[in-house]
């Protein structure tokens, strides 16, 4: 990979611009330096890549040349927990990955695919053909329901509704300038009283943890072998020595799946709908493939 140009502004200026104006920050440096550039932060430097060839290189190249040590993600500890796969490195990371990956292979994916299809059809059931809608709101709704049902195994009831509401609030706190500031500036995460973001964050996290731990404990007390959600499979997983995940480790991996899978998936699908709508040839090709006609008709106009 060729040498990467470096942003020249002082590190502190770059840091605050990245927190307060992330899109403008990336667009400005893209115009100045192209598809790849190096930005300096207060904690570490970041390499920004946008060309498909660069992304392919990173995702497919030898891990001995390119790696992602867990310690680089320590700023996410407050959100994910100390035991998250994203915060582990080396042998510990490999062992945990082997333990948690089986639910994402083979027949399990077919089951999740059917569930995703059902949730999507339910979410768009009230949309009339040709009706405009906000794609990101719809995909957020779909993504959250998939996580609640496929990951946590919750389909209905007070716990499901409450957890969904609290998780959405927690993710909202992690987005935008305030969310970035909470991640990068530890002082803001401190509990300075009821008025402070740190207090709200702590109270919200405790409510979420109470619900997650209750679900874990209920399953341990009365396991259901017919369940196929990821939580139940992780509860049953054992390593080579016959050891399973602790309640805290389970909680941290569930939060990792939530954080890594909700916003990213919802945003990617929303952009996919945008481009399908704006590239008629792509939409026509989809209609000729396996996507149900009723689904394409309902998703024909998005805002």
Automatic annotation (TrEMBL):
| One GO molecular-function entry | oxidoreductase activity, acting on paired donors, with incorporation or reduction of molecular oxygen
A Pfam family in this protein? p450
State the family named in the UniProt similarity comment for this chain.
Belongs to the cytochrome P450 family.
Q: What is the official name of this protein in its record?
A: Cytochrome P450
Q: What is the lineage of its organism?
A: Bacteria, Bacillati, Cyanobacteriota, Cyanophyceae, Oculatellales
């Amino acid at each position: 990979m060729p040498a990467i140009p470096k942003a020249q502004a002082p590190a502190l200026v770059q840091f605050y611009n990245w927190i307060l104006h992330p899109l403008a920050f990336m667009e400005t440096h893209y115009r100045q330096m192209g598809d790849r550039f190096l930005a300096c932060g207060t904690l570490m430097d970041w390499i920004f890549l946008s060309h498909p060839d660069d992304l392919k290189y990173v995702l497919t190249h030898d891990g001995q040349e390119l790696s992602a040590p867990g310690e680089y993600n320590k700023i996410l500890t407050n959100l994910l927990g100390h035991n998250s796969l994203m915060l582990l490195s080396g042998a510990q990371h490999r062992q945990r990955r082997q333990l948690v990956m089986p639910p994402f292979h083979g027949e399990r994916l077919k089951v999740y695919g059917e569930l995703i299809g059902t949730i999507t059809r339910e979410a768009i059931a009230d949309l009339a053909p040709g009706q405009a809608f906000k794609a990101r709101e719809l995909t957020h709704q779909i993504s959250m329901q998939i996580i609640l049902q496929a990951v946590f195994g919750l389909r209905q009831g007070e716990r499901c509704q409450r957890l969904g509401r609290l998780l959405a609030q927690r993710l909202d706190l992690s987005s935008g300038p305030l969310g970035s500031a909470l991640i990068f500036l530890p002082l803001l995460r401190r509990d300075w009283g009821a008025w402070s973001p740190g207090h709200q964050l702590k109270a919200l996290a405790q409510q979420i943890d109470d619900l997650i731990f209750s679900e874990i404990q209920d399953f341990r007390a009365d396991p259901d072998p017919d369940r196929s959600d990821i939580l139940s499979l992780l509860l049953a997983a054992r390593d080579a020595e016959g050891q399973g995940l602790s309640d805290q480790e389970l909680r941290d991996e569930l939060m990792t799946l939530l954080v890594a899978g909700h916003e990213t998936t919802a945003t990617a699908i929303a952009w996919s709908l945008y481009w399908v709508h704006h590239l008629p040839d792509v939409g026509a090709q989809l209609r000729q493939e396996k996507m149900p006609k009723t689904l394409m008709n309902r998703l024909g106009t998005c805002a």
